[in-house]
Design a protein that fits this description.
406 residues, Thrombin, subunit H, PDZ_sf, membrane, PDZ domain-containing protein
């Protein structure tokens, strides 16, 4: 080499570099070594070796699947438990109704509400069981007297019994009947009974609210509501071959059907004001008749008086005016007197055969049925004012009604 220099052993330079014809002798020479790895900077992931063996994901997938199944099972179980305990239906999270306190098993009712009146009256109401039929009645004394309809006990014999609202039963016997007024009294073989409270049927008005109690169509312990629809509705009724009955009734639109007969009609104070007795229908036999909003009750003032007579004497007094009247087919607007008893109340008041009574106690009369029904409403000894026509003249008189001596 020029200058006598020799390359040291292991030099990267060729040993004959100085003799290289392509070398620029004037270019500086340097040894370039690889730069050391930087410190503190980001470390890049190494490039994977495509020939290296791959890692399996099967265990990871199995773990995920088992976890999902376990979570679903636990969630479903908890949802079912909450649904059963919390009253849920239709699926977890669905609750019907607003959250709140549970209603107690027994709730106190306002005594003046229908429910309060029912709680007061129902223990006094009975179902009357006779041979092949069912009617209703109500207790009027603690020692077991019960008022019902005469047509309920007709043909009862010795097989009568009653049942109470608490499910208990007791045998009963007939005390007495008033056929034409359709009132009967029976005696229950049971003591310390809750007697119903009496009201005043002369104090009621059209539009007053009422409740009807009884066993319609053998459905015991039934209560229906309505109003007083009319007062002094005169009705003539009776079974074929039986007694003809006359009613100056309280009309109501409370639902009343076969089996309600004899049950109480009560006012808003829970007092009995009538005895449910008759219904009207739009055709068909009486046994097939159903409620159409026309029901009739005997005023309790009349029923109570008759029942007291039966209890005291075994027989009811019948109130009469002392005259026979023409019923049906009369062209006159009023009750025509066909005959007058010489010593009877009508004769004492100056009435004669042929007179046409147009009013009694201010109540208009259309025919003889009206007069009979309204007279029966009063007690013997009552004094009533009557208006009548005699020929072309109009007059008035006061009649003191009497009890039938038969």
């Amino acid at each position: 080499m020029p200058g006598g220099h020799q390359p040291p052993p292991g030099s990267p330079w060729w040993t004959d570099a100085l003799n290289d014809p392509w070398r620029d002798p004037h270019a500086p020479s340097a040894v370039v070594l690889p730069a050391p790895a930087p410190t503190g900077g980001p470390v890049l992931d190494p490039v994977p070796d495509p020939d290296a063996p791959r890692r399996s994901y099967t265990p990871v997938l199995l773990i995920c699947l088992l976890t999902a199944l376990l979570a679903g099972g636990i969630g479903g179980t908890l949802g079912f438990v909450f649904a059963v305990r919390g009253g849920y239906v239709g699926g977890p999270g669905t609750q019907l109704g607003a959250a709140g306190q549970q209603t107690p098993a027994t709730v106190s009712r306002d005594p003046e509400s229908f429910a309060g009146i029912t709680q007061k009256v129902q223990p006094s109401v009975v179902t009357v069981h006779v041979t092949g039929a069912i009617g209703s009645g109500f207790v009027v004394s603690a020692d077991g007297y019960v008022i019902t309809n005469d047509h309920v006990v007709d043909g009862a014999g010795d097989t009568m019994s009653v049942s109470f609202s608490d499910g208990s039963t007791a045998p009963a016997t007939l005390v007495g009947r008033a056929q034409e007024s359709d009132i009967a009294v029976i005696k229950v073989a049971k003591s310390n009974l809750p007697a119903i409270e009496f009201g005043d049927s002369d104090a009621i008005a059209v539009g007053d609210p009422v409740l009807a109690f009884g066993s319609p169509l053998a459905l015991e312990n039934t209560v229906t509501a309505g109003i007083v629809s009319a007062l002094d509705r005169t009705i003539e009724a009776g079974e074929s071959g039986g007694a003809t009955r006359y009613y100056a009734a309280i009309q109501t639109d409370a639902a009343v059907n076969q089996g309600n007969s004899g049950g109480p009609l009560v006012n808003a104070a829970g007092q009995v004001i009538g005895v449910n007795s008759v219904i009207r229908s739009v055709g068909g036999a009486d046994t097939e008749a159903g409620n159409i909003g026309l029901a009739f009750a005997i005023p309790i003032n009349q029923a109570k008086r008759i029942a007291q007579d039966i209890i005291d004497t075994g027989k009811a007094r019948r109130t009469v005016i002392g005259a026979e009247v023409t019923t049906g087919g009369s062209s006159a607007s009023g009750a025509r007197l066909r005959s007058v008893e010489p010593a009877g109340p009508a004769a004492a008041a100056g009435l004669k055969a042929g007179d046409v009574l147009t009013k009694i106690d201010g109540h208009p009369l259309q025919d003889g049925t009206d007069l009979i029904a309204l007279v029966r409403k009063y007690a013997p000894g009552a004094v009533v004012a009557v208006e009548y026509k005699r020929g072309t003249k109009t007059a008035s008189a006061s009649v003191t009604l009497a009890a039938d001596t038969n």
